């Protein structure tokens, strides 16, 4: 299969809406499962399956995370039975033909027995797949942008757990029927040369298959990848099947992957709901965020920590009341990305600088009930805790809240500070996971205060996969995003930084003394600082910028040609002159 050529643009990542001849069709077919953005240079992968493949209760998000920057991954919202597919899929295929890989399954809806008959008897099932005008022929008739038919990959139907499997010919689903339908489908796929992703065998031969399934009755669904690893496991099998037909994964960036200094506006100004929060890390992949606030509420920009950084900080409010009382919703959301997703072999560091007097861990129903989230990922968090009020808790996300393998214990690898940080003073907080030592460490103001050995959990049978925030997930600063008062931070936040690697205190951001003339707070005095000063001369003394141009703190910065500061001043004067000439 010919793959699209991949172009890496150092300034802009091409993100466009998926091209389709029918906007209405795109809304109908993809529903909530459409990718947030599409890179037209990458191949398009379509996953077809029932709810086991789709959305929050399926393996779609796991596959999309695994194939980030390698493929655009879609999943349809209209799968159901093969008979339904014969009616509806021609419309999908007419509207969307640019598929490079189609990974498909039908089964659990077909084989369900109800009111004295199967939804789709096995003879009709095989005919729908391989008879006159069948589904496979239609797929093979697609011609994509490369002038080729897509690669077809079949997924076998997953088992029905013993606890909910019924006898064949009785109401519900029987695992014996799953085996029969899988056998019939495999015969067709083998005769047509279509590779099979054997999800049934993958689950059936797992060392502890019951851990993969959700616990409440019905239940053929699998655990979410963030809570356990059923969908992580299935998503890995599907990714392996698709892997040969998409480009190789780009090398992940090392070092700083995101830095938000909250200097978009000057001290005294306010941010409103929807305002941008800029990633100032300077990386190829830019991860800008968005201010989240109630419509009637703004988030003030206040003075940051003068001992460590120049520039502003954001002031978050929380709501009043305990329980499920609605909160103020002050927070910053950053879309998840492979840059913020880590496995047990990848070290990472979260950092922030805060000032607060917030009391946590109060009585149920009170204004002080709950915790104060600082950095909340889809899996893993960084809070001022309620179990140990006023102290910081770092949980990178390895394990689960109620882990069956560990007798229902909370195995999320938490560690706490010994210092309470709600004393109205600025504190630098860093949470570090060191993959080499399998240790989680927590630092307050550069001093290690907590450490936890997480080897038992990350090597346990009940956890597998990744932590952090990948595609279709979010990083949230200042709340959990749940909209409740007991999960909101109240105080000032100067910055957030996320890095790949287990940083040492000497490498932490914002602990060194500020460099004079560093008006944007990125710990190097460069041309961008002049532009910041030009927009707001009250930011600092231009003489400091001239005297210290090119200097940096202990933080490693990118090397390169550094123009003389005079050229920026001359450019600024020229721009001012041009502005005056236009006014005449």
From TrEMBL:
InterPro entries documented for this protein: ConA-like_dom_sf (IPR013320), LamG-like (IPR006558), SGNH_hydro_sf (IPR036514)
Span of domain LamG-like jellyroll fold: 346-506
Source organism, top-level taxon: Bacteria
CDD domains: SGNH_hydrolase
Keywords: Disulfide bond, Signal
GO molecular function ontology, one term from the record: hydrolase activity, acting on ester bonds
Organism: Adhaeretor mobilis
Name by which UniProt lists this protein: LamG-like jellyroll fold domain-containing protein
């Amino acid at each position: 299969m010919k793959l699209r050529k991949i172009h890496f643009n150092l300034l802009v990542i091409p993100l466009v809406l998926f091209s389709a001849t029918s906007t209405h069709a795109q809304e109908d077919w993809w529903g909530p499962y459409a990718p947030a953005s599409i890179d037209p240079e990458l191949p398009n992968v379509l996953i077809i399956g029932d709810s086991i493949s789709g959305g929050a209760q399926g393996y779609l998000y796991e596959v999309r995370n695994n194939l980030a920057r390698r493929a655009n991954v879609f999943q349809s919202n209209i799968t159901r039975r093969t008979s339904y597919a014969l009616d509806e899929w021609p419309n999908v295929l007419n509207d969307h033909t640019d598929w490079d890989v189609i990974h498909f399954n039908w089964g659990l809806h077909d084989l369900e027995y109800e009111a004295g008959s199967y939804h789709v008897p096995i003879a009709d099932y095989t005919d729908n797949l391989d008879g006159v005008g069948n589904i496979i022929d239609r797929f093979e008739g697609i011609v994509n942008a490369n002038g080729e038919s897509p690669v077809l990959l079949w997924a076998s139907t997953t088992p029905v757990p013993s606890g909910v499997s019924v006898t064949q010919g009785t109401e519900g689903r029987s695992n014996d029927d799953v085996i029969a339908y899988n056998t019939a489908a495999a015969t067709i796929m083998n005769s047509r040369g279509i590779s099979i992703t054997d999800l049934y065998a993958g689950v059936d031969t797992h060392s502890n298959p019951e851990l993969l399934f959700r616990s409440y009755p019905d239940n053929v669904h699998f655990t979410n990848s963030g809570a356990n690893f059923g969908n992580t496991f299935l998503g890995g099998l599907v990714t392996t099947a698709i892997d040969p037909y998409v480009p190789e994964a780009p090398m992940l960036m090392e070092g700083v992957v995101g830095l938000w200094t909250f200097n978009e506006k000057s001290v005294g100004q306010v941010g409103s709901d929807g305002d941008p929060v800029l990633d100032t890390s300077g990386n190829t992949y830019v991860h800008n965020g968005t201010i989240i606030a109630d419509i009637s509420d703004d988030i003030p920009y206040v003075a940051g920590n003068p001992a460590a950084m120049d520039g502003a900080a954001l002031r978050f409010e929380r709501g009043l009341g305990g329980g499920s009382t609605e909160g103020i919703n002050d927070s910053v959301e950053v879309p998840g990305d492979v840059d913020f997703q880590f496995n047990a072999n990848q070290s990472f560091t979260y950092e922030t600088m805060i000032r607060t007097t917030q009391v946590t861990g109060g009585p149920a129903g009170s204004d002080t009930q709950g915790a104060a989230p600082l950095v909340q990922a889809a899996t893993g968090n960084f809070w001022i805790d309620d179990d140990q009020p006023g102290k910081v808790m770092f949980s990178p996300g390895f394990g689960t809240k109620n882990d069956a393998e560990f007798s229902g214990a909370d195995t999320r690898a938490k560690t706490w500070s010994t210092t309470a940080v709600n004393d109205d003073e600025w504190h630098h907080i860093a949470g570090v996971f060191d993959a080499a030592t399998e240790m989680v460490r927590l630092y307050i103001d550069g001093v290690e205060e907590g450490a936890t050995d997480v080897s038992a959990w990350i090597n346990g049978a009940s956890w597998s996969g990744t932590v952090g925030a990948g595609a279709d997930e979010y990083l949230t600063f200042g709340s959990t995003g749940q909209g409740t008062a007991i999960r909101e931070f109240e105080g000032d936040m100067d910055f957030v930084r996320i890095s790949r690697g287990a940083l040492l205190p000497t490498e932490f951001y914002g602990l060194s003394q500020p460099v004079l003339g560093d008006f944007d707070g990125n710990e190097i005095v460069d041309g961008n600082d002049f532009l910041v000063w030009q927009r707001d001369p009250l930011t600092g003394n231009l003489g400091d910028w001239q005297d210290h141009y090119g200097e940096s703190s202990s933080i490693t910065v990118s090397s390169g040609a550094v123009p003389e500061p005079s050229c920026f001043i001359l450019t600024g004067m020229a721009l001012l002159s041009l502005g005056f000439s236009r006014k005449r």
